[in-house]
Backbone:
């Protein structure tokens, strides 16, 4: 293909090209940050092909400091506060959710809204307190309108979740909902096919179960979650 000799020729060719596209029905381009981010993610390898370098003997404070005022993905633009996680630094049990919601974004704490209050009741039913476990999310910033985080947002934030889990080294992880389960287990299988039994994440037992916000909409599923939670209690030798 011949290249235009001058800027005028290039602009003329561009004008003709755009006019042709208009005749074909094109009425503009979606150049939003989210769309560009989504398209960029198609060039990235799948999660299973990405390796996260996890430094040894890290403390949670080091990881938090490393995150800083993180701008690694699109979600930074809409957050009020980054929600890193909270709880016991050597907890035997870590709960992993999907991402902060409205209340969490305001407070900077994980699981403090209605779903969080339900999670607190589940933890207490396990004869534990929030101080004895660790609670965090896959992404640390609130997705707009509480949508599911996009693959590239998960990809940007996942190394920090992996480092948190490596620093805590719990005996069990309770993956709350499909996003947390799929991220930790690197699978597309539906949570209904995964919940109820332990899976492996880097030598740590993972119990997928339904997210508390799902339970708020489907209270009849609480019994199912209780069955999953009882298996975690058995693993941790917590009497019923
Ligand atoms: S979601 Fe994670 S990667 Fe994205 S800006 Fe927030 S902390 Fe950074």
Residues:
């Amino acid at each position: 293909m011949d290249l235009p000799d001058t800027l005028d020729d290039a602009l003329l060719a561009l004008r003709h090209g755009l006019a042709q596209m208009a005749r074909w029905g094109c009425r503009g381009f979606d150049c939003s940050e989210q769309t560009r981010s989504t398209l960029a993610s198609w060039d990235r390898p799948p999660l299973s092909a990405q390796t996260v370098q996890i430094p040894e003997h890290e403390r949670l404070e080091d990881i938090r400091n490393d995150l800083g005022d993180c701008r690694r993905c699109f979600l930074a633009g809409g957050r009020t506060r980054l929600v890193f996680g909270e709880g016991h630094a050597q907890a035997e049990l870590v709960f992993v959710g999907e991402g902060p919601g409205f209340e969490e974004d305001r407070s900077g704490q994980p699981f403090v809204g209605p779903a969080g209050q339900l999670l607190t009741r589940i933890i207490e039913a396990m004869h534990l307190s929030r101080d004895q476990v660790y609670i965090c999310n896959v992404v640390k910033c609130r997705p707009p309108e509480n949508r599911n985080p996009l693959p590239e947002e998960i990809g940007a934030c996942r190394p920090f979740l992996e480092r948190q889990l490596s620093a805590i080294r719990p005996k069990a992880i309770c993956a709350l909902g499909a996003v947390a389960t799929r991220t930790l287990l690197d699978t597309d299988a539906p949570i209904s096919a995964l919940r109820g039994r332990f899976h492996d994440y880097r030598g740590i037992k993972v119990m997928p179960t339904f997210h508390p916000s799902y339970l708020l909409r489907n209270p009849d599923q609480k019994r199912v979650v209780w069955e999953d939670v009882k298996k975690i209690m058995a693993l941790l030798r917590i009497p019923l």
Summary: The domain at 55-235 is CATH 3.40.470.10 (Uracil-DNA Glycosylase, subunit E). The chain has a mean pLDDT of 90. The longest strand covers residues 204-209.
